[in-house]
């Protein structure tokens, strides 16, 4: 409504607008129309109506704006005509009444189908006499840890060598494991180990902390006792480190979730879509975390923001395990106690499995029911009946479960009006359930007082001490890492200084050799020019004077000849003395060079230590 339109209205019209007279008239007309429609459609009923025009939770803004009242139901007359097969987009219309489309019709339809199946299965199972032993209940309740595999080169066949290898592995990881888990007080041991047919080592570890620690391949050594090992940890972590992200839209891929979680949770190990949870629009995603703190933080938050949308977080609980015989493929016993068959039965075709190679691609036909599936498939009615009876026994006797075990009941095995999804030992949570009451949050007087017992205070103190020990251990580890980094930087800087000193010494030695060469050249030149040339010149002058004396027969040249002879002897003595002195200096220089080289070598060796 524009301002000009409101300005041109009369005062009476403005009063009617403020009083809401037009809205009341509209509501009255709608009520009249609804009464007329109710009279015309007396046989109509409120039903869930699955439309084919748009899927659930449609993102079509125009269609959603046309339906402002989404109560989750639609009025459909019982005498509506069948729609033609070539007109799938035609809507079911009623006389001027509002149509409410159910946004969760698909989920409710699934629940109705499951409830009907449960009733049929319950009727069928009542006539089956399936006995569940305590061993079967214990097997169904326990968590079965997957083995760790160590590929060894060379292969192993000696038990003593295998035991030594396991002990060396535990000694290798002991210090780092205690640093990561300072509150761990149990012995660091392997529960079971053996050699497989290929000569590799396989281990069973039932300690959750050690199990999670060894799931990282970089924590293994590459070689132990001269044996090269290649670790192959299990594919999944225990349920204590697994959460479920519920109702994730298909538009958000697993890689998108991984990138979002890696920002705040560095211990993320794997993300997988859970089998059997996928529908037209959503699915459940299982997330595994190595760090217990990240797991508890996510689980306590109960919600998480992914791609700008809020999703629910729930803990992952395993379903009960079925004990299946490896010989006859029947549930409820093991191969050692099997009396149903004297030979191994192939679970694909049902024939005798004497040669395993022949049964890798044999025809699939269940030998329990004759259907086209393997005999150990949960779709088989034999396994389905046994699983249903097993869950029924667990629900009747939850006290047989260990105190730390919680089992998830699949939706197809729940009763129609039973909303319980978990089987657990009720005595474990009895005290907590008694204290679980509702109070007025704004009234502090109605809040219950927490009972402070000595045991509770001791537990709190122990938890605080464990956290303090963990924090101090982390701080010590950080200090060690920082000190190592500083030492490494100093060593690199010192190494560069040593290299510069070494280069300087080499330059000095080269200069010394050059100077020595120059001195040797100058000495040879001096000897050549002064002594040798002087002796030759004196000898030549003496010869000339002798020739002149012989021609003139005069004795006046005798004194000159004697003077030249004395000069020649002087030059020879000077030459000999100079040569001896030069040789002495060269020997001294060689000794000085040798001493200098030794000193430099010792200096460089000391710097490199």
UniProtKB/TrEMBL annotation:
Residue ranges, annotated region (Disordered): 30-120
A single GO molecular function term of this UniProt record: zinc ion binding
Biased composition regions of type Low complexity, renumbered to the chain: 32-43
CCHC-type domain span: 325-340
Polar residues bias: start-end ranges: 64-77, 93-103
Coiled-coil spans in chain: 462-496, 547-606
Superkingdom per UniProt: Eukaryota
Designated name of the protein: CCHC-type domain-containing protein
């Amino acid at each position: 409504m524009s301002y000009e339109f409101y300005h041109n209205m009369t005062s009476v019209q403005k009063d009617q607008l403020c009083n809401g007279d037009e809205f009341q008239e509209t509501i009255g007309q709608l009520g009249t129309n609804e009464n007329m429609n109710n009279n015309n459609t007396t046989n109509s009923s409120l039903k869930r109506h699955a439309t084919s025009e748009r899927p659930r939770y449609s993102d079509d803004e125009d269609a959603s704006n046309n339906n402002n009242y989404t109560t989750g139901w639609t009025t459909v007359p019982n005498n509506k005509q069948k729609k033609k097969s070539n007109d799938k987009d035609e809507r079911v219309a009623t006389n001027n009444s509002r149509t409410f489309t159910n946004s969760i019709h698909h989920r409710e339809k699934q629940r109705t189908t499951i409830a009907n199946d449960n009733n049929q299965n319950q009727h069928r199972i009542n006539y089956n006499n399936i006995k569940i032993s305590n061993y079967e209940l214990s097997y169904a309740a326990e968590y079965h840890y997957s083995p760790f595999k160590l590929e060894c080169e060379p292969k192993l066949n000696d038990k003593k060598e295998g035991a030594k290898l396991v002990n060396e592995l535990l000694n290798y990881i002991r210090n780092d494991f205690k640093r990561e888990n300072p509150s761990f007080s149990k012995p660091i041991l392997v529960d079971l180990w053996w050699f497989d047919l290929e000569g590799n080592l396989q281990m069973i570890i039932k300690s959750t902390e050690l199990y999670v620690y060894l799931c990282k391949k970089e924590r293994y050594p590459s070689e132990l006792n001269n044996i090269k090992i290649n670790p192959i940890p299990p594919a999944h972590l225990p349920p204590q480190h697994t959460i479920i992200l519920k109702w994730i839209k298909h538009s958000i891929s697993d890689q998108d979730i991984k990138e979002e979680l890696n920002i705040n949770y560095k211990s993320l190990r794997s993300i997988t879509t859970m089998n059997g949870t996928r529908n037209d629009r959503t699915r459940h995603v299982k997330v595994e975390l190595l760090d217990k703190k990240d797991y508890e933080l996510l689980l306590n938050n109960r919600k998480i923001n992914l791609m700008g949308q809020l999703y629910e977080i729930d803990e992952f609980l395993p379903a009960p395990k079925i004990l299946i015989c490896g010989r006859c493929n029947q549930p409820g016993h093991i191969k050692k106690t099997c009396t149903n068959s004297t030979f191994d039965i192939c679970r694909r075709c049902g024939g005798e499995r004497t040669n395993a190679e022949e049964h890798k691609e044999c025809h699939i036909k269940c030998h329990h029911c004759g259907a086209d599936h393997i005999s150990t498939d949960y779709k088989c009615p034999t396994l389905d009946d046994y699983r249903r009876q097993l869950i029924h026994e667990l629900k009747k006797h939850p006290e047989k479960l260990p105190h730390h075990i919680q089992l998830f009941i699949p939706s197809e095995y729940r009763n129609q009006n039973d909303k319980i999804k978990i089987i657990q030992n009720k005595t474990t949570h009895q005290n907590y359930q008694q204290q679980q009451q509702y109070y007025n949050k704004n009234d502090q007087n109605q809040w219950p007082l927490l009972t402070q017992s000595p045991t509770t205070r001791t537990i709190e103190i122990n938890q605080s001490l464990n956290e303090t020990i963990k924090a101090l251990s982390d701080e010590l580890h950080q200090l060690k890492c920082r000190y190592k980094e500083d030492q490494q930087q100093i060593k690199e800087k010192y190494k560069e200084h040593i290299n510069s000193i070494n280069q300087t010494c080499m330059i000095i030695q080269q200069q010394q050799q050059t100077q020595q060469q120059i001195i040797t050249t100058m000495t040879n030149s001096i000897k050549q020019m002064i002594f040798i040339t002087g002796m030759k010149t004196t000898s030549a002058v003496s010869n000339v004077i002798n020739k002149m004396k012989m021609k003139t027969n005069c004795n006046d040249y005798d004194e000159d000849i004697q003077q030249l002879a004395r000069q020649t002897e002087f030059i020879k003595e000077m030459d000999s003395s100079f040569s001896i002195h030069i040789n002495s200096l060269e020997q001294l220089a060689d000794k000085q060079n040798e001493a200098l080289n030794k000193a430099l070598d010792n200096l460089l060796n000391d710097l490199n230590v």
